[in-house]
Amino acid sequence: MKHYPFTTPATARLTAVAAIPLILAACGGGGGGDSAAPAPTGPQSITIDFAAKAGSQNVQCGTPITGLGTGGVTAELHDLRFYVSNVALLNEKDEPVSVTLDVNDWQTKEVALIDLEDAKGACADAGTSATNFQIKGTVPAGTYKGVKLTVGVPASLNHTDYAVAAKPMDVQALAWSWQAGRKFAQIEVNPQGGVARPAPAAPGSTFYVHLGSTGCTGNPVTGETVSCARPNRMDFHFHEFNTATQKIVLDLAGLYAGSDLGTDLGGAPGCMSGATDPECEPIYKAMKLDLVTGKPIDDGHGQTVFRTEAK
To answer: pTM higher than 0.90, yes or no?
Structure first.
């Protein structure tokens, strides 16, 4: 004859209460039996990668680039460098969260230099063999879905002597002669056949795109504050961007879509940020910059210079 344990109402209640956590676990209360991953608590390290292309063509020094501009010309890269600031990731609410930049030879706390030339081919004229395709830094713990940046150097740092500046603000080739400023972007190609210019100017070999602040007053050498009528800093952003799986591409096909690279109608050869330079009109349109005011149009929406691509 079997004997069963004696159970009182009180012990029955205790047994039922003790079983509740087991029932919850069996019913999926713990995420199907898996423990939830701990939420990040400290700063997250991030890397933003860059590349240069012309449509589907990889762009590099010493390799011809075909089908550029309104004339579909073939050209060779001469230079491709630009400063980036105001780097931020967009959180789930589409709000910018500033990236704290690592400090190294390519970055200060405020500015990074992207250098996509390697001094080969025509780039040997003024380029360097050193390159930099990345921005590195940290952001607060969180979930991010986009990115926002500015091509340019902040006004507080722009008008300084490059010869005594910290890296990467010490690049002589990017020094701007006006009020000791910087060229924010130096993008240059040599079209086959050269660049025809109005007489009596001789034809040129290079179509220049130099972006920098213009209409500046004040002498930084004597301690005066420099003020520029046209800032010419290009804002751009992507609402959907994953730093782990995507990179930012500077697309020469998009930059030159409205430009005849074989002809210059006046002013500086190519576009050197002149408000009345005819070659700047299509360049600024691609950058979504107002040529007269030098300010971004619609926060850079619709710009065709930068796009994203899978790594």
So the answer is: no
